[in-house]
Amino acid sequence: MHLQGSSWSAAVASADGNGGRSTPLRVDAQRNLEHVLRAAREVFGELGYGAPMEDVARRARVGVGTVYRRFPSKDVLVRRIAEEETARLTDQARSALGQENEPWSALARFLRTSVASGAGRLLPPQVLRVGVDAETEIRVPQQRQAALATTGSPAQPELRLVEQPPVAQDGPDDAGAATLLEVVGQLVERARAAGELRPDVSVADVLLVIATAAPSLPDAAHQAAASARLLDILLDGLRSRPVG
I need a surface site. Which of 6, 35, 89, 95 has the fewest CB within 10 A? Predict the structure, then answer.
């Protein structure tokens, strides 16, 4: 599956998990939907969005046909999860803006909260494009390419890094990504204006920090400790240094 450009934006719009129907789901169907969504967050968080639907069904302990009844294509499920995680990150950024008066404290609070929540492992590709040479391509560590290769699952597509974040197109996923970039941009601009953030750090750099500092490790305690340690190092790298 390709998650970039038109393929991502063309994901089926009925990502409500109810096939576009307006009638409420039965209790058992609603329970299955919740199991599928929770399993999808776990599987995609561990293996990246290249993980197959069969892995999601297995984790949810339902048949793959049940997953496809809720989500007619993998793009629809990916879109649903990415939208939820984008909205969660946006809420965390707004909370940091509203609860911290000091610009650096606000930015650091947002990063620590987001990394601790694991949201960085589920960031959609739109928000991971950063300002480097447009001819350069890298793989974001959190997309778990190595894990997918080990399991024999389909390879995670490369994320092409372009000069600017994409222009929002029609669709809730693009609108959500644009809102996230705007709110995080306020955190970045405040910290930069206060002279506490390196002037060359962009919004996309900050989001890459969230992705990079959210490793998926088998042991929960080890994962939390590794995330905290890595984030401390990355925060130190983001902070401006006095001249001389």
Answer: 6
Q: Is the pTM of this model over 0.70?
A: no
Segment 11-62, tens digit of pLDDT: 434 445 454 444 555 777 788 899 999 999 999 988 888 999 999 999 999 9
In a domain, 244, yes or no: no
Provide the residue range defining the domain that includes 51.
Answer: 5-238
Instruction: For CA atoms 86, 167, 137, 158, give the dihedral sign.
Output: positive
Q: For 171, left (φ over 0), alpha (ψ -120 to 50), or beta?
A: left
DSSP 6-37: HHHHTS-S-TTSSTT--SPPPHHHHHHHHHHH
Q: Phi then psi for 159, rounded to 5 degrees?
A: -100, 115
The alpha carbon of 179 is separated from its chain's Cα centroid by a whole number of angstroms, namely: 14
Which residue type, as a one-letter code, is found at position 62? V
